[in-house]
Amino acid sequence: MIRTIYFLFALFACSAVEQEPIEVISANKLIELQKEGTVVVDIRTQEEYDEGHIPGVLHIDFLADGFLDRMKSQDMDAPIVIHCASGGRSGKASKMLSEAGFKKIYDYSGGFSDWKSNGLDIE
Fold first, then answer.
1. Contact call for residues 9 and 92 (beta carbons, < 8 A)
2. How do residues 81-116 score in pLDDT, each as one tens digit?
3. φ, ψ for residue 107 (rounded to 5)?
């Protein structure tokens, strides 16, 4: 009986500490994270990025050769925000980064389309 209690305690204690590495966020959360110094990566193509982007983001094209290598140049233990145009590529990239060992990934799934529709500043 005591073994069972210890086993259950250990099981729930460990699961309470674990976090999902990917969290879907809103524009407000992105703004908050960016103010805290979290790196925000725009993974759209160069052409999309040149048409306008969120101020202060890092641009790494998801469709370009070497995407994962360029992402790995970032601190994989630090949280990172990923966004694309509307959420398709950012979901794929977030999964790829999680599998590569990134510890905390925020996926701004509304992407640049959501950012613009909210009337937020762009460069």
1. no
2. 999 999 899 999 999 999 999 999 999 989 999 999
3. -105, 105
